[in-house]
């Protein structure tokens, strides 16, 4: 989003929470938390200027572990609540934090429509390709053949392609990073925060407890930076982005896959927000007496 509030001098210490994490040792969520904190510091956004809205899942505990506004909601509903928060207070930098199950399973309908509306929020999907909190069932992003408690002979479903899905649904910023590279993840998140419109940041995440195949070494071997491999790559070209998202070579391109700055975002088009009165929460609650009389005449 376009950060309109005054930039503040903040440090990582300002975002430290006093809550003790219950994540397993080595969980990729630690790297994602650190990346979000770094991105906020680098963007000069203070704890009171940001809100993190999460659903249910291991990674959805994240708002508890960061000193900023937070709202833990229902499974699959984080994006919906985040869009409401954003419309009520467009001054806040609004994050929706979901896992792969929360974002691409239970909440997929909300995600698609908020992409289409170009709602000005940053949606971080912590994608460990498994349901962690409920003890390791296969998820919509699990690879075909992945063995879990609910797929003892290997998952028979094909997984969702998050990047291609986001592109076709109308997301105007699509980025990807890895929890084992928090510096890169922080850079992608900061760019997503500065983008006006729906920004999807998929962060590949290790889950050493339930996804023992895809560990840090595995991801290091399977990921590559888009611009390092192809310096000519143009992230504003949807056809190049589609081609890259559909490459089925088992590797994960990282960085900014797609960016469209032409499309207006939803809040820019809402009449009530176009009256130079700033964020809705700052509008006066007083009723115009002339309008009030008209309403009375019409309904009383
Ligand atoms: Fe992290 Fe997996 Fe443990 Fe959940 S189950 S806290 S995702 S390592
Ligand atoms: Mg998951």
What is the topology?
Elements lengths: L28 H15 L6 E5 L14 E4 L5 H11 L4 E7 H7 L1 H10 L4 E6 L34 H8 L3 E6 L3 H13 L4 E6 L11 H7 E3 H4 L8 H9 L5 E8 L29 H11 L1
Parallel strand pairs: 1-2, 1-3, 3-4, 4-6, 5-6, 7-8
Antiparallel strand pairs: 5-8
Helix pairs in contact: 1-6
The chain binds iron/sulfur cluster and magnesium ion.
Magnesium ion binds next to helix 3.
Write up what this structure looks like.
The protein has 300 residues and is α/β, with parallel strands linked by helices. The mean pLDDT is 95. It contains 10 helices and 8 strands. The chain has a single domain (12-299), classed as Thiamin diphosphate (ThDP)-binding fold, Pyr/PP domains (Rossmann fold, 3-Layer(aba) Sandwich), CATH 3.40.50. The chain has helices at 29-43, 78-88, 100-106, 108-117, 162-169, 182-194, 216-222, 226-229, 238-246, 289-299; strands at residues 50-54, 69-72, 93-99, 122-127, 173-178, 199-204, 223-225, 252-259. Strands 2-1-3-4-6-5-8-7 form an 8-stranded mixed β-sheet, sandwiched between helices. Helices cover 32% and strands 15% of the residues. Helix 6 links the parallel strand 5 and strand 6 (199-204). Helix 1 packs across helix 6. It starts with 28 loop residues before the first helix and ends with a helix. The chain binds iron/sulfur cluster (SF4) and magnesium ion.
């Amino acid at each position: 989003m376009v950060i309109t509030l005054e930039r503040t001098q903040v440090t990582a210490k300002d975002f430290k929470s006093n809550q003790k994490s219950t994540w397993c040792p080595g969980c990729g969520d630690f790297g994602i938390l650190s990346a979000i904190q770094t991105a906020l510091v680098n963007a000069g956004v203070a704890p009171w200027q940001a809100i993190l809205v999460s659903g249910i899942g291991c990674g959805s505990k994240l708002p508890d572990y960061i000193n900023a506004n937070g709202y833990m909601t229902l499974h699959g509903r984080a994006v919906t609540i985040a869009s409401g928060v954003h419309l009520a207070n467009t001054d806040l930098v609004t994050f929706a934090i979901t896992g792969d199950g929360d974002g691409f399973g239970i909440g997929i309908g909300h995600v698609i429509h908020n992409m289409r509306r170009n709602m000005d929020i940053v949606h971080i999907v912590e994608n460990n390709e498994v349901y962690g909190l409920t003890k390791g069932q296969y998820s919509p992003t699990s690879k075909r053949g992945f063995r879990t408690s609910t797929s003892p002979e290997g998952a028979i479903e094909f997984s969702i392609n998050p990047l291609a899905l986001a592109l076709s649904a109308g997301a105007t910023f699509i980025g990807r990073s890895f929890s084992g590279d928090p510096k890169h993840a922080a850079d992608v998140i900061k760019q997503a925060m500065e983008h006006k419109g729906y920004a999807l940041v998929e962060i590949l995440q290790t889950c050493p407890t339930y996804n023992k195949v895809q560990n840090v070494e595995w991801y290091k071997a399977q990921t590559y930076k888009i611009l390092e491999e192809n310096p000519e790559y143009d992230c504003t070209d949807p056809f190049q982005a589609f081609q890259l998202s559909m490459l089925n070579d088992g590797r994960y391109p990282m960085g900014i896959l797609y960016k469209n700055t032409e499309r207006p975002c939803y809040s820019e088009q809402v009449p009530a927000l176009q009256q130079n009165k700033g964020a809705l929460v700052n509008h006066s609650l007083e009723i115009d007496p002339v309008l009030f009389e008209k309403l009375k005449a019409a309904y009383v």
